[in-house]
Amino acid sequence: MHGKLYHTALLQRIDEVSFNPRMDEGTSWKAFPAFWYHTGMKVIVGMSGGVDSSVAAYLLKNQGHEVEGVSFILYEARMKNTFSGCCSMESIRDAGETAARLGVEHTAVDLRNEFMSSVIEPFIDAYARGITPNPCILCNRHIKFPHLLRVAYERGAECIATGHYAITESSRQPAVGSQERVCLKKGIDPKKDQSYVLYGLRPEELRRLLLPLGEKRKDEVREIAGELKLPAAKRPESQEICFIGDKNYRTFMHTLVPEERGGPIIDIERKRVVGFHKGIYTYTIGQRKGLGISSPEPLYVVKIDPASHTLYVGPKDAAKMKEFVVDEINWLIKSTETKKYGSAAEGKSADATSPLSLFRASVKVRSMMKDEPATLSLMHDGRVHVVYEEPQWAPAPGQSAVFYQGDMVLGGGVISEVAA
């Protein structure tokens, strides 16, 4: 069982049974009050072999918890690549060496088939349909956090932890055993904040999640790793998609995608064909390089039409958009709570196209961009219509849009339509 059904069933199972063999038989998580967190808990830490998860494991052990590191074998062994991304065999060896240095148990779990079906295949399918996916968000939603919880259940652990730079917080900290919602907030380091890629987590996951790096900056984390002489202390920061590594994603796609139909490249302003492409799956909105066309000024991909296999290009300003529609919403607050950020729409008929409420928030559509002010309209069908105050660079179907109120993540979803 994969994807959403597997995810839901797994979380229901986790909530229904007693994880911890040290508890009385028949006792469930829900029987414990919100203040049940304590030092000396057993914590399963997702260890990628990088500096962040390594220091997260150290900090939790230093706080008195019983730490066990788990690494996931996701891709490399299947494809026999030699890159050193977070899902490579090299990184798993580094994680094992770090765990040994810290004196904690470490195991590896083979999830190659699950990763292929829940992350890589949707990634390939999305590009083949002319949309831009975020594989890190897919991995967090369908692989990393559900399987960390599964391991926690199997090994009698109270919590899970990762090295993400974000903060979980509730009015009664902590929240294990409580049905109270836990807030997800930005990490204090604006250059490393990773709340964007965690918006898809379920409340059950947030209630059991420890994020020890949320209130630290990257230079502090590297300093700690250096002092401990951890293997990852000098490991360079990776910006690539983990299963692609150093390869260009187009090269990766060419190795896996069947022969793709080419089509025209049309200048959206001059309204004429300026070139031809070999397949839309190698392009994304906002792309400038690799178009294979000449022009007196830089041209960018501004629209992809998968039905006609047509690429539209234009000047940089043409790739900036103000509004789009977001689907597959995951609210980290109750959707009814959006009313306190705005007001119900007035003077409009209550049909399917009129908003239930309008509210102000800030929105980001890429992990490293700054969230920018916008008006959000909550529609009857559950989608959200976003209108930025100012046009933003290259929002694209398939990207995730995440909504913020200050440092707090309200929720987010996947862009399904972008206004022309």
Verbal overview:
With 420 residues, the chain is α/β, with parallel strands linked by helices. It folds into 3 domains: 3-228, HUPs (Rossmann fold, 3-Layer(aba) Sandwich); 259-314, Roll (SH3 type barrels); 320-418, Beta Barrel (Elongation Factor Tu (Ef-tu), domain 3). It is built from 9 helices and 18 strands. It has helices at residues 3-16, 51-62, 76-79, 89-102, 112-128, 135-154, 203-207, 218-228, 249-256; strands at 42-46, 66-73, 105-110, 159-161, 166-169, 183-186, 209-210, 263-267, 272-277, 300-305, 310-314, 320-331, 342-343, 355-364, 372-379, 384-393, 400-405, 408-418. The strands form 4 sheets. It has a 6-stranded antiparallel barrel. The protein has a 5-stranded parallel β-sheet with strand order 3-2-1-4-7, with helices on both faces. Strands 9-8-11-10 form a 4-stranded mixed β-sheet, with no helix packed on it. A hairpin with a 7-residue loop joins strand 14 and strand 15 (372-379). Helix 1 (3-16) packs parallel to helix 6 and helix 2 runs parallel beside helix 4 (89-102). The two termini are 39 Å apart.
